[in-house]
Amino acid sequence: MRHKITAFLLSALVFPGLGQLYNQERRKGMILVLAANGLLGLVFLTLLILVSREYTLVFYPRPPTMEMVQMLLLDTLRHPLFWLPCGLLLALWGYAAVDAARRAGPPAQE
After folding, report:
1. What is the pLDDT of residues 54-76, one digit of tens each?
2. Helices vs. strands in the chain: H and E counts, helices first
3. Taking the model in full, what pTM does it have?
4. How far apart are the first and last CA of the chain?
5. CA distances from 71 to 19, 43, 66, 67, 106 (A)
6. N or C: which end of the chain has fewer CB within 10 A?
7. Residue 15: which residues within 8 A CB-CB, separation 6 or more?
């Protein structure tokens, strides 16, 4: 049983695809790691684009202050375009964790 728990925790708490790599499913593990990295990059890129767009449209001539940054981040987190890659990343993360636990074999007998 420990084998399933280890595979699940690697994919759920560390990074998607690590549980598959632990289960010796190299191809699936690498695909999940690369997909998660791509989606994580897309999340950060979307965040930067939305923050810079909002700053340019609303606050541009003024230098950024802490209150302005907080407002920009809150507006960005409310934007539906930001949640699309976040939702895909969370779905991939959940799939990787469940798949790693489901495909893990029994622990090695000594």
Report:
1. 888 887 888 888 998 899 889 88
2. 5, 0
3. 0.81
4. 14
5. 38, 19, 9, 6, 50
6. C
7. 33, 36
